[in-house]
Amino acid sequence: MLSPDLVETLLRQALKGGADFAEIYAERSRRRRMIVRSGRLEEAISGLDYGAGIRLFFGTEVVYAYTNQLTREGLLEALETLLRAKGALGQVDERGAGGLDFRKALPKGLHTPRTSYGEKDKRYRLERLLEAEAGARMAPEIRQVEASLQEWEQEVLIANTEGTWAEEKRVRTRLFVLAVAQDGTEVQTGYAAPGKSVGLELFDLFPPKEVGAKAARQALTNLRAKPAPAGTMPVVVGNAFGGVIFHEALGHLLETTSVAKKASVLADKLGEEVASPAVTYIDDGTLPHAWGSTEVDDEGRPTERTVLIERGVLKSYMVDRLGHLLTGYPMTGSGRRQDYTFAPTSRMRNTFIAPGDKEVEDLITSVEFGLYAKELGGGQVKPGSGEYNFAVQEGYIIRHGRLEEPVRGAMLVGKGPETIRKVVAVAGDWENAPGMCGSLSGMVPVEVGQPHVLVSEIVVGGRA
Amino acid sequence: MTLEEAKRYLLRRARELGLQAEVLFQEERELSLRARQGTLEEIKEARQGGIGLRVVVQGHVGYAYTEELSPEALEWALSEARDNALLADKEGFIPLGQALGSHDLLGEGLSAPLETKKQSALELERALRDDPRTRSVLMGGYMEKEVRVALSSTLGAEGAFRTGLAGMGGSLVMGDGPSLKQGWDFKLAKEFHLLDPGRTALEIREKTARHLNARPLPTGRYRAYLEPKAMAGLLLVLSRSLSAKSALEGKSRLLNRLGERIASEWVTLVDDPTLEKGLLSRPFDAEGTPAQRTVVVEKGIFKTFLHNAETARALGQENTGHAFRTYRGILDVAPTNLFLEPVGNLRLEKGVLITEFMGLHAGANPVSLDFSLQALGLWVEEGEVRYAVENFAVAGNLLDLLQAIEAVGDELDWEVMGSAFGSPLVAVAELSFAGA
After folding, report:
1. Are B299 and B425 found together in one domain?
2. Best mutation target, B173, B185, B255, B430, to test chain A (most A CBs within 10 A)
3. Domain total of chain A
4. Do both B56 and B145 map to the same domain?
5. pLDDT score of A101
6. Angle at Cα A325 formed by Cα A320 and Cα A327, nearest 5°?
7. A35 phi, psi to nearest 5 deg
8. Of B305, B340, B375, at which residue does a domain stop?
9. Closest CB from A126, A146, A410 relative to B87
10. Do residues A244 and A363 share a domain?
11. What's the pLDDT at B187?
12. Which one of A49, A387, A409 has the shortest CB-CB distance to B395?
């Protein structure tokens, strides 16, 4: 995208202006989205994102600029704007005089797609979406189905004044199915959305018909569900996307983005027991083809597998470059950003609770009265207080150790550091699921995951 | 190529290829200044622009966009848009256009010197720290955005406008003993000089500190008072159901309910893109339909969906001029400045004052309109706030809530979440609370 010569000129110019560190991030992304409703393609859009971000450190003060003008003039102008904003334009620092020797890291192709986008035409994609819709049309109550495909092919180049030169092509594909079920005036929805760092082999990994059926079954279940009971009770949280609870309630509290500012209730707690001993919590950016995996992070460092909590004891935070400067903790390859319009911050990649030794049945049978939160929707957390909330997309009552009727409209509410101490049992059926996570550096693809876990008590918001 | 050249190139090539085309381009400049512990920890300066293409081939619509303005990238966008249209099966059209003129809705609103803006960001951050209860300030800062939008079509639409916003706010953690609360707020205005760092910081501090030492709220049904910020969140969820596009896609429960009572008599809901100094006012919509004020709900009666030309034709109703599209997106419908009209019959008595809903994207279903939301609140008795309450969720259905509105305050406050949502304080007869 950019020549080493131009990149070197920019980086040296930044050092001359007094910056302690400079980084260029350039990106070209092709995106496609196709949406099928009622058996026909309703909307299709293709797009090309193209831009670059320049980040400079003056001590721990950061200046960031981005532009779509990836010409020599465009980039130099962006850089000058930054130096002017910093009052450093026209300075000459001797550090800009020497040459830069880039260490080029070649991509290993760990997540290279098997079926590239070019191999199949748009008609092929449309047929798969129609299969997904057909899979969802399983009952007369299913009134509306929306199936969409999202393709994202992102080429990045990251170079910095320490000699980093990393290039990577990241390919991600996701299939979404939304089913709307109606009975009289009652309307309920169901949802399924598998996604991976793969090409069109996604359709082999997740047959569209089954994805459609999964969304429809959930909508139908919710249609016959009663309002969830309200109150404090034990909750068995389902595997895979169930992990969003600890993504929100624990993961965000371990990013240096909040830890460095002492804005996380888990700051300064390394080596301390912060969770129940049943909990080992891992953030792994290297899982092959996972939705949140990349070979290098958006600061150009190789991604890593980071054990955050081991048997309840806090072992590591997720650390980006700025977080490292502010805290001294070693970087973990966790610098991420939505695109060139954001400076990176420390973010989760694929974060999950490691499998335990219990059976799922044991978890259920140990509950006298409680909730089985089989599928969760999204949620939110305030790291400063640890308060979180998230929606139960598919839930059932547990009575006398048995799964009974479905309930809907349940919301789990609590404080993360309290909830993580109340995890009393962890099953062995670990799975991950994809999602989009929003924070200071925009929306990034992540996986969340866990086996089934039993939490001794959570506030369940339902109808009082 | 410049955006202007790229626009002319695309329209010329579209005519050569026999395509009807509508070109939307957008240029943005952004400045953000983030302060922490007395220094500017992040300064961001940005320029972004791109061009979005909507074409019609044989009555079907296709889309493409690009931020790269080379001839190759533009040709790629043209061929992708055409392929997308050929594969699409939904009828669509580009409306007959008109000359829309060139408008400036921003003027000199952002023209203060950079140094002054830096000082404001630092002052706000300092003022956030200036409180014994402040445990840490995550950020305090200033941001501004200037946008230029232009629309042209092969059917004669031609217009442009310039607009923008300035904002100031921050995020902090406050504490009293073991009780901790995180607060966040951002004040927006059309002009830099309307922002007041000291007052904004004081408001953020007070709004956060009032939640300290919260008690659990017993599960039960209580009268609820929704502060403007909380109500704005609900209006955002409701706005999806007010979109005729959602209705046509089977995602609105309001379909076939025009002329019916969907809310109490105190509810009049208006969208007005022509509001003077409206945060998201604009002279015309994304299809080039001139802006007009639309009464969506009048004294509880559902008057109209929000429409673009396509949805108005499909439902046989009048176009309200609410076409929405960014250069990166497809044609949609969206409100601009949507607000609940003040009434002035509200007096605080007894119940839970809800200051903010959390997790709206997950806890409120825009199709069924069911919600179950974590909220922050204060217990009110004899018209006065007695103490904060926490760890609870509020559940119900938005349509039931609208019917249960028994009083509406007299002062509008605005929140920008994609569109601008305005509301006074609102009293709801009864809501279901799940807590201790």
Report:
1. no
2. B173
3. 3
4. yes
5. 83
6. 90
7. -125, 125
8. B340
9. A126
10. yes
11. 95
12. A409
